Amino acid sequence: MIGAYGALFVGVLLLFLILAWVRATLGQRDDLSDHQALLSHELEDLEACPQEFVTRIFEGEDQKFISRFASPQLQKFFRRERNAVALLWVQETSAAIRRIMHQHLETSRRSKDLHVATEAKIFAQYAQLRFLCGILFVSIELVGPQKLRGMALYAQELTQQLGHARLELDSAR
Amino acid sequence: MLGQAIWWSGIALETLLLIRGFRGRLLARYPVFYGYIGFVLVQSLLRFSVYHWRPQLYVPVYWITQALGVLIGCAVVFEVYRVGLRAYPGTARMARNVLAFVFVMALTKALVDTWNNPHWLWIVSNVDVERALRIVQSFAILALVLLFLSYSIPFGRNLRGILLGYGLFVAASVIQLTFVTNGDSRFNTFWSYVSPGSYFAVLGVWAIHLWSYRANPEPKKSVELEAQYQRLASATSHRLREARGYLAKAVRP
After folding, report:
1. What ipTM was predicted for this assembly?
2. Whole-model pTM?
3. Which structural domain range is residue A49 located in?
4. Contact with chain B for residue A129, Cβ under 8 A
5. Using one digit for the tens of pLDDT, what is the confidence trace for B205-218?
6. Total of domains in chain A
7. A93 and A23, same structural domain?
8. Nearest CB to A100: which of B135, B182, B243?
9. Are A81 and A20 found together in one domain?
């Protein structure tokens, strides 16, 4: 049977979840979103911030330019601003992803031929994206957006080197 | 003295709930729930009578009625699922699968325990069995509430009250039974007041939420979605893939 701590955890979890559910349902309105909007693949949520801007936030070009002034205060200010913008972008993207999922759930709840496996697959995709957003958020906080891109470059180089090494090892066998 | 006062107040609240249910025509809409309230009322009076006039029968009567209460409680959860998801066949289908998963997991656990120790059923006490059943109920309610939350299922005041009250009651029972089975006598006096007190609070929640009939909100639009589910699912999947590409583009070298 389940242990004492496990049982206590289940009891307390149920208590909190029930209260969270009541809080959520109290402010709920049944405004079903238009499923035609979902079917039309509209991506205006995600495209609120143009791709060029996003790339620029994560690129090191502006940082290089700022570092020419040799002003630690200016560099510090620049880093802080860029971090804030990058974090805001991650939050906005995460919110857009949440909206996509919310629209899907609101519409699929009334579908008689709902497929459990398809729903599970979509949920897994959604969970993966939210996890990715979380990782991005923490990474930006820790190393900043420019270094994050540098890390991605380094990881790609490492992967390529590993690939080459494996090919060499395979040909040597 | 305080325990007696809570007990008699509980009886009064149960009677009031039944009267309001009868007057407000709620009995016909939630028959299992009112059956449960009626059962608890009869059970309390029966236990009280047996305790005073046939004390030697109290323990078997207590455990038989307690087991029946757990079973009727399961039917209350099923009624919430049936009424709450009537207009949402998609979520109802998910709920059936999730509940089946919970019960299969519970059954598997019981079978594994029996396999590992064939005598465990004779060793465990009634309290252990009740705690195990309440934990299974907790998992079922947890799964349902998570589905209601994810699919944003709107609930009417009556049905919300039934699930809120029963969920709180089950959660409190699991916590209380865990302390009781651990055999720490320090908590016994404490629980002798908290247990009827929490049940009285649950009755209060039910009395407030079920004072009069409030219809469950129905979906406004009646769009036929059956044929469109696959299109909808692939559209969502496509949008999520695009979101992933959008995220990756930012940091991709």
Report:
1. 0.81
2. 0.77
3. 34-172
4. yes
5. 999 999 999 888 87
6. 2
7. no
8. B243
9. no
